[in-house]
């Protein structure tokens, strides 16, 4: 059965990366793809080993735990802080970016460093759902960096100092890639916390200068190594950081210090460990940095299944009523973005087929994705078990292609070509190769699994599962909840 809500479990936050549970836990394992029923061969067994690093940082394998690159949700083992721009970075980025035509909604649209102007929602369609969003950048590169890690400093210098300018000069790459900065606080160096807090303070006061300050922090990182801070108080270190922020990011030193300073007096309720004004930002890291565009500090992710009745109810209210109300409220529109996530439920095989059809439309006509999604939810009973059990898989695909043509304006045959399964072996003899959107679907499923989502619908705000959100909520209930959670 589907559930209308998912109770919140343990904290999804690991190392200061709240939007998902993707933060590295120990050393990541490289695994070769295999079907769940396929026995592991000796070769596969031997591949299940920790990724090796060339230069481990003190107390940690820094390349994997600190300078950690995620490419479309998968840890990228070839990225290294010692990578030379001409030997690997640009040539390999070009091959990787261009080898896939997939157009999944960016995982962190609105909390990213983009190389082109930000995409904005288009006008709503007749049923109140968004008529389209621009998914110009199908690939996401996430870099987890620590300001007091030498290897992070090397990677930052190359990626943001050399690769980013080169990408801006290549419109094809700029349209296909977004880069997301992630705060990877390493607690065995207490000053790591202080430097990241200072960066988050700058992100509050002057978001456009975040990267100026980050570059300055990396350049001066030795000043914040253990030896450089052990002889001064925490507030004294904060004062130095505030001074650096003022000199490099153009913010007022006292404003920064006020956000960072820790009081030596108990709080009014007697609390002795209340942190500072950016403690919550550090915990949740909702203030992701981006190079250009409007900064929306909150992200609402909705994991929906096209053959789930509760998902249909939530979609109709959220995209049919709440979204139009948000467009009429500039304060909310500036502070919140809503991201659709595919939650495929395998106990209903037709769930896979409907999501594949949506991904096919997302390839062919991204601006019409929500039109097709609305049509799928409206016609979901046609794809329940009873409605598909008597026809072949390709026959169901043909019906879905016809629906896509009628509601999203795409060519029926183009959609069917992306979905159809051949009844002939592949050239290499393979019998289970899937269709043209199988890779897209795998990435969508991986996203849900890495985030820890199991039921539909599931709603996350800034990476935290919202167990109180119900598929039965009315516009008024959504309005009240949003007002309480995304207010200025």
Automatic annotation (TrEMBL):
Gene3D superfamilies: Glutaredoxin. InterPro entries: Thioredoxin-like_sf. Residues 1-28 are annotated as: Disordered. Transmembrane segments: none annotated. This is Thioredoxin-like fold domain-containing protein.
């Amino acid at each position: 059965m589907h559930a209308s809500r998912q109770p919140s479990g343990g904290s999804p936050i690991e190392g200061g990366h709240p939007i998902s549970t993707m933060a590295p836990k120990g050393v990541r394992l490289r695994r070769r793809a295999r079907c769940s029923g396929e026995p592991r061969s000796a070769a596969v067994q031997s591949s299940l080993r920790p990724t090796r690093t060339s230069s481990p940082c003190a107390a940690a394998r820094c390349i994997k735990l600190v300078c950690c690159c995620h490419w479309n949700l998968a840890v990228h083992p070839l990225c290294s802080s010692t990578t030379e721009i001409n030997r690997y970075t640009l040539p390999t980025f070009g091959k990787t970016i261009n080898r896939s035509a997939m157009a999944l909604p960016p995982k962190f649209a609105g909390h990213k460093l983009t190389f082109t102007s930000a995409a904005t929602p288009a006008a709503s369609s007749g049923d109140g759902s968004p008529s389209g969003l621009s998914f110009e950048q199908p690939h996401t590169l996430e870099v987890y960096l620590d300001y007091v890690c030498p290897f992070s400093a090397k990677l930052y210098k190359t990626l943001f100092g050399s690769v980013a300018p080169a990408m801006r000069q290549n419109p094809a790459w700029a349209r296909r890639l977004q880069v997301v900065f992630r705060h990877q606080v390493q607690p065995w160096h207490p000053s790591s916390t202080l430097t990241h807090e200072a960066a988050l303070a700058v992100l509050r006061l002057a978001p456009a200068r975040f990267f100026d300050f980050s570059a300055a922090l990396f350049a001066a990182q030795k000043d914040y190594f253990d030896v450089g801070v052990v002889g001064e108080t925490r507030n004294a270190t904060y004062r130095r950081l505030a001074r650096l922020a003022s000199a490099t990011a153009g913010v007022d030193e006292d404003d920064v210090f006020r956000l960072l300073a820790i009081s030596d007096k108990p709080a009014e309720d007697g609390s002795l460990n209340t942190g500072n004004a950016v403690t919550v930002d550090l915990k949740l890291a909702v203030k992701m940095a981006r190079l250009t565009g409007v900064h929306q500090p909150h992200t609402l992710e909705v994991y929906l299944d096209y053959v789930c009745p509760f998902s249909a109810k939530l979609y109709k209210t959220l995209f049919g009523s709440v979204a139009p109300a948000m467009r009429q409220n500039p304060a909310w529109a500036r502070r919140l973005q809503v991201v659709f996530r595919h939650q495929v439920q395998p106990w209903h095989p037709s769930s896979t087929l409907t999501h594949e059809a949506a991904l096919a439309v997302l390839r062919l006509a991204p601006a019409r994705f929500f039109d097709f999604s609305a049509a799928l939810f409206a016609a979901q009973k046609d794809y329940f078990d009873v409605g598909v059990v008597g026809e072949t898989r390709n026959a169901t695909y043909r019906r879905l292609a016809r629906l896509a043509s009628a509601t999203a304006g795409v060519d029926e045959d183009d959609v069917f070509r992306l979905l159809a399964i051949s009844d002939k072996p592949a050239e290499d003899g393979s019998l289970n190769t899937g269709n043209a959107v199988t890779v897209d679907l795998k990435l969508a499923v991986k996203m849900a699994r890495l985030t820890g989502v199991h039921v539909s619908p599931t709603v996350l705000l800034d990476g935290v599962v919202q167990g109180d959100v119900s598929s039965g909520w009315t516009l008024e209930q959504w309005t009240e909840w949003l007002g309480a959670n995304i207010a200025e």
